[in-house]
Amino acid sequence: MYGLFLRHFYLIKSSLPRVLDLIYWPTIQIILWGFISKFFSIYSDYYNNTLGIILTCAILYDILFRSSISFNMLFLEEIWSRNFTNLFIAPLKLKEIITSLVFTALIRTLIGLVPAIILTSPLFGVSILKLGLPLLLLFLSLYIFGITLGLFVSAGLMRFGPSFENIAWSSLFLLAPLGCIYYPIEILPNFFQLIAKGLPLVYIFDETRSILLNGMVSYENLKYAYLLNLFYLIFGLILFYFSFLRARIKGTLINMGE
Amino acid sequence: MYNPLEIINLSKNYNTKEAVKNVSFKLNRNEIIGILGPNGCGKTTTIGMILGLLKPTKGKVLIKGLEIENHRVELLNELNFISPYIELPKKLTVKQNLEVYGRLYDVKKLKTKIEYLCEKLRLNEFINKITGELSSGQKNRVSLAKSIINDPSVLLLDEPTASLDPETGDFVRSFLEEYQREKETSILLASHNMSEVERLCSSVLMMNRGSIIDQGTTSELISKHGRKNMEEVFLKLTREVI
Question: Which chain A residue has the Cα nearest residue B72?
Answer without folding.
Answer: A91
